[in-house]
Amino acid sequence: MTASANASPAVESRPYDVAIVGGGIIGLSTAMQLLDSSPGLRVAVVEKEERLARHQTGHNSGVIHSGIYYRPGSWKSRFCVGGKDRLIDFCQRNEIEFDECGKVIVATHESELGRLQDLYERGVANGVPDLEVVEPERLAEIEPHTSGIRALWAPHTGIIDYVQVAEAYAGKFQSAGGDVFTDTTVVAVRQTADGSALETSRGTVQARHVINCGGLYADRLARMMGEDTDVRIIPFRGEYYKLAQASEGLVKGLIYPVPDPRFPFLGVHYTRNIHGYVEAGPNAVLAWAREGYRKSNISVGETMGALTFPGFWKMTAKHWRTGMQEMNRSYRKSVFVNDLRKLIPDIQPGDLEPGGSGVRAQAVAASGALLDDFHILRGRRALHVLNAPSPGATSSLAIGEYLTEMARQDFGLPTA
Ligand SMILES: Cc1cc2nc3c(=O)[nH]c(=O)nc-3n(C[C@H](O)[C@H](O)[C@H](O)COP(=O)(O)OP(=O)(O)OC[C@H]3O[C@@H](n4cnc5c(N)ncnc54)[C@H](O)[C@@H]3O)c2cc1C
Hints:
Layout: E1 16-21, H1 25-37, E2 43-46, E3 63-64, H2 75-94, E4 98-99, E5 103-107, H3 113-125, E6 132-134, H4 136-142, E7 150-154, E8 158-160, H5 162-175, E9 179-181, E10 186-192, E11 195-200, E12 203-212, H6 218-224, E13 232-243, E14 254-257, E15 269-272, E16 278-281, E17 285-286, H7 300-307, H8 310-331, H9 333-341, E18 352-364, E19 375-379, E20 382-387, H10 396-411
The site of flavin-adenine dinucleotide has 42 residues, from helix 1 and strand 18.
């Protein structure tokens, strides 16, 4: 049983060696691996929701990425390719269902062929196995309802339920003696003589060291801990449609467009979910609240926080045209359908039912640049994960291992 299924225990006043803020997949992977490498350490995970993995980890596409898109040498390429293999191994050993259903990235216009070839070369450089450029006949065998002039076939891309994975990490962490406090929001942080006092909604958690895995609030938490970072998290909502049951046969696995290289998002795509249904999306629209899962969710304070950040306006100046297109697609189903039709010409508006949404914690620099790579800030007696976008869930074991190693070095933790 994990903490997500139990009432959270009372917050302890005895100091912890390490407190991890955020019970998403990255915080939990790090917690599990910290205790694995330093048994006997006192570690706590502090999570504001009643259950674990309720935000990005529980609102994503559920894809096990294979590592095609990322610049060779980047943290994303390193953590995704290595992390995927470790994730699959973890799932096999812990009986977590996944399916290597494969994915096609489909070029539908001549202008995309150069970028498709670049993606192939990136994937090969990143060590993604068995990538293949396929012509329309072979594409029709893989995805019979898709139309394209050429495609990239990645047979080892898969699907999974990341909430199950995160809960499995939490279960192992707790079995190794770790504490999980849910329903416990960190509202302020005081520096003390020998660490930090995390003031929470359920009392004070004392810790010598802190690892901030706060997702959509990671920048705020970093500032609460006195870090001077010019990075701000801007929430981008991703909205999905769901294919009506009668239309699910149009998609066998994962069907993606060739992405726009100026953006860290992959373009609206079709995803077969591990639970059987098919999703279409997500788009990427600015959200007016960090946990703004619906268009109607507006937080005046959080919106003002974004509007008073100079990076927001610089980002908007650079990308306003795409932003308007995304808004248009968000409000007009016909525009969404037209984009999806480029991949499956037979799709009709009636095939699509309203689906869920997720909010991406996208870090933006003061220059207005959207941070593309994972970003971890070394702080005073603390580490802060300030940008962990997709493929963060695929990479969770690799990121957690890296944070564990950083913590061992920076915090001087003992090893097993
Ligand atoms: C729409 C969408 C689609 C995606 N698709 C994929 C995909 O297919 N494959 C993939 O690999 N990745 C995907 N990702 C990315 C992936 O979901 C993230 O990289 C990953 O979930 C990040 O995990 P996390 O633990 O950093 O953040 P989160 O899961 O958001 O966890 C952060 C936690 O911190 C808690 N917290 C925040 N503030 C406080 C506080 N003050 N006190 C206590 N707790 C706090 C939150 O409640 C939350 O539980 C997608 C993301 C989105 C949004």
